[in-house]
Amino acid sequence: MFKSFTGISVQQFDDIYKEIESKYEKYEIKRLSYKRKYRRERAIGAGRHFKMDVRNRVIMVLVYYRLYITYTLTEFLFGLNQSNVCRNIQKIEGLIRQCLPIPQKLYKLTRRLKTKEEVEQYFPGFLAFVDVTEQPIPRPENKLRRRIYYSGKKKKHTVKNLYTANHIGLIIYKSKRRQIGKNHDYNIYKKNHLDVPEDVESLFDLGFLGVQKDFPEQKSSLPIKKEKDCNLSSQEKDYNRDHSKRRIVIEHAICRLKKYRIMNDVFRNRLRKYDMVSDIVSGLINYRIMNIC
User: Fold this and answer.
1) Angstrom distances, CA of residue 266 to CA of 39, 107, 156, 158, 282
2) What's the predicted TM-score (pTM) here?
3) Do strands 156-165 and 171-174 pair parallel, antiparallel, or not at all (unpaired)?
4) Quick one: how far is CA 251 from the chain centroid?
5) Cβ atoms of 163 and 131 closer than 8 Å
6) Which of 41, 53, 184, 205 has the fewest Cβ atoms within 10 Å of its own Cβ atom?
7) For residue 44, pLDDT beyond 80
8) Span 215-240, mean pLDDT?
9) Which of 51, 78, 98 is where one domain is finished?
10) Helix 82-98 and helix 10-33: axis angle, to 10°?
């Protein structure tokens, strides 16, 4: 039941929480000491206190991400009011993000790889799998934003993210900034892509046609496109079938992300929060893969 509600096992949660608990006091002092437009007049420790302890607040964040329930239902389950639910989630998301193996941390490590043994540790089989996924958002009120966020593929207003995974489904890279639904997958890749080691081969689908021409220094593999009024030979069909079997890894990685309803349903939160949410969910997926129990 716990795994169904949070997406991770009890043992995995306990391991994550140990790190969160050890960093919480320092994180809170830094958060409360941060100077915004005004100077803090009261000493740290004064003011409103959280009604829930840290452990239950972390559980509430995981349940909210996994099920994407409304604040009304969340306040009923955890005994809070709606404003406290929002505050409890918002103030601890940054700490949870720090304690997870998010793609940005893994990308910093992969950029320093030198030997083939180090490369194979992060890219088993010297393979990387790339794809873009999009998520619907509410229809914007602004006319210009309605036009640029409209996806002709999904017939909805969406945002997109580029993901790169290795052979075991570990998410090595995620695009830094949210991308509007109007942008083509390949245009997003040209502006936000992983600099993989030269020995690693990247596998794409037909949405990335042109990558071999624009990035000749990078090893790339794409399926064979069927020309107009021409049929593929049996050998070409076999190649495409084999390519799809190898590339299914990135589809499974995206499927794991989508099991967190906050990454699958219409994104009801502020768009400025989207990168934080996708980082945390990607980190949870990576943690599950790195610590299977």
Assistant:
1) 38, 28, 10, 9, 18
2) 0.91
3) antiparallel
4) 14
5) yes
6) 41
7) no
8) 90
9) 98
10) 100
Looking at the structure, do residues 155 and 54 belong to the same domain, yes or no? no
Indicate left, alpha or beta for 77 from its phi (over 0: left) and psi (-120 to 50: alpha): alpha
Look at residues 65, 98, 131 and tell me which one is the last residue of a structural domain.
98
Helix (H), strand (E), coil (C) string for the chain: CHHHHHCCCHHHHHHHHHHHHHHHHHHHHHHHHCCCCCCCCCCECECCCCCCCHHHHHHHHHHHHHHCCCHHHHHHHHCCCHHHHHHHHHHHHHHHHHCCCCHHHHHHHHCCCCCHHHHHHHCHHHEEEEEEEEEECCCCCCHHHHHHCEECCCCEEEEEEEEEECCCCCEEEECCCCEECCCCHHHHHHHCCCCCCCCCEEECCHHHCCHHHHCCCCEEECCCCCCCCCCCCHHHHHHHHHHHHHHHHHHHHHHHHHCCHHHCCCCCCCHHHHHHHHHHHHHHHHHHHHCCC
More confident residue, 37 or 286: 286
Domain count, the chain: 2
Assess contact for 288 and 8: CB atoms under 8 A. Answer: yes
Checking if the pLDDT of 235 tops 70, the result is yes
Residues spanned by the domain of 67? 2-98
Give me the sign of the Cα torsion angle 94, 99, 103, 107.
Answer: positive
Average pLDDT over the chain, rounded to an integer: 90
Contact of 254 with 268, CB cutoff 8 Å: no
Question: Both tokens of residue 132?
Answer: 């873009």
Residue 12 burial (CB count, 10 A): 20
Bridging pattern class, strands 127-136 and 179-180? unpaired
Do 130 and 174 meet the contact criterion of CB atoms below 8 Å apart? no
Do you know the residue count of the chain? 293
Same domain, residue pair 123 and 227: yes
Q: How confident is the model at residue 178 (pLDDT cuts 50, 70, 90)?
A: low
